[in-house]
Design goal:
This protein has about 220 residues and is mostly beta strands. It has two domains: about 1-110, no CATH class; about 150-220, no CATH class. Helices cover about 5% and strands about 25% of the residues. The chain has one helix at about 1-10, and strands spanning about 40, 50-55, 55-60, 60-65, 70-75, 90-95, 105-110, 130-135, 140-145, 170-175, 180-185, 185, 200-205, 205, 215-220. Strand 2 and strand 3 (about 55-60) form a beta hairpin. It is elongated. The termini are far apart.
Length: about 220
Amino acid sequence: MRIARALLFASLVPVGMVACSSASSGGSPTDGGSESASGSDASDGGGGCAIPCASQCCNADAVCVSDMAGNKTCAVSCTDSKACPPASPCCGPGGESKTGATDQWAGLPSTFYATAVCRCVTGAACGSGVCGPQTDSTGNPFGPYVCKPNDSKPYDGCGGCPHCGSAPGLNCWNDPTAGDAICAKSCNTNVDCGDAGNVCCKPATCGNCLNSCGGSGMCGPC
């Protein structure tokens, strides 16, 4: 069993790959270092474990993650998929569906969860080239930003012209946070966005290819 876990961990976070961590004290993707996400065995009696993870003890800059089968392993923490190594290219949630700004994120294989949610700072981290806010069950945007399809749907990339054809009532805005063109609600004041304190009216440049956006900015996470 320990051998199986070791093999899973080896495929998840290669030795020396610590650039996906915002808390790591060493290394870069090419420095050939020797740090990894796990330290001593959680059951080795070595004075306790701050982050136990099945039989492993995760390092301070790591997260204990559980895959779809319930297998737990240590993965290096992160804030942007662009900094993650090829074997674990997605800066995904430490727990499936736990995608808030205060949740833990770690470098994961793209197939770790049934639906990949990969954190980003700009579209350079995404295959689609689009980094945008997530949306809740009511359609309101929230952070952190993740890689989004370029399919003209709400808070996804604007797609082809005419922009945002799959998002009635929304316009194509050049998002001031990530710099990518996304389909967002137009606004002039925070009141236009609803969900006071969580969604704010942000000054932005209209990216519509045909018509004006009908506002001075877009509604986005405060």
